[in-house]
Here is the input.
Amino acid sequence: MRQPLIVGLGRSGAGLHLRALRTVRDRSPDLWRGPVVAVDPRPGERAPVPDGVTVTTSLERARALLPPDRAVVHVCTPPATRLAVLAELCAAGYRDLIVEKPLAADAGEQAAVTELRARHGLRLAVVAHWPASALADRLREQIRSGGLGRLLRIDVTQHKPRFTRSLRTDDGHPTAFDVEMPHSLGLVLSLAGPAETTGARLTDLRIGGTVRPGLGSALLELRHANGVRTRIVSDLTAPVRERRAVLVFEHGTAVGHFAPSDADDHVQLDIDGRREVFRDDALTAFLHRTYSRFCTVPAEDPSWAADFALHADVVRLLDEAKQRCADDNARARYEEASRVGVR
Here is the structure.
């Protein structure tokens, strides 16, 4: 049996991961044992510390309570600190890691994470509950069956109002590409295969006189190797939450409505007007599957490398999108300066 070590008791660690872990144990009591150990230098500052969690303020203290050979580490820190946390965990001897999305902040850090994985023989799983969901399985089956013909296009809408967190200076998510889009990008790569970026756009968050660059909305356009086109839009200033994937086939359309938040685990699937509603606790399913793999699948099994490669590709595509937007902004500033005669 394995024992969870959660690094970071913010919204993700203190809320989502702990809740899902307890649901997993309710369903499979022998999959992991407690107590949950957690590391956070400022416990309780960002989210209440749940009951039944042994909290420490340093990894050194946590290691004395939970050595690496028993631990599954949940890395729930922001992307900007991800590489440093992973390096510290590797130095302490931890090898089985569940990492919040995205895997790294940019392509340079991704290369460093890849090197850590290879050097230390890590079994590393990136949180990917959208691709692991029952709804995604149903969408994949629709593609495989060919009942609606060939898949032509995927349109993903992933909106949520996120003003308070985006206005914080220590949020750790530098752009709208880093917040929601890793979920949907992992999903479309799992549905339609490898892709290349064809377009990207980023807008600022503006409230009165306050501006947070790059934290308004994000657009990503892809062309997959099989010819499928994807368009993902994520608006962090939207008035309502929406998580929808529209798959356009030759002879029909399938629409998957993912759960808008952890408040309700029901999803909806609409295939050419025939709507079905069903429960789909995707994060619980992902953690159950991942803990089972840690118990049974050795590090040299190729499935770990395949999963890692998909999430490395997510980082690459997002990094390319950010660079496109930076280049576009630089070009626009140059053109504006040229119009007013400034060189």
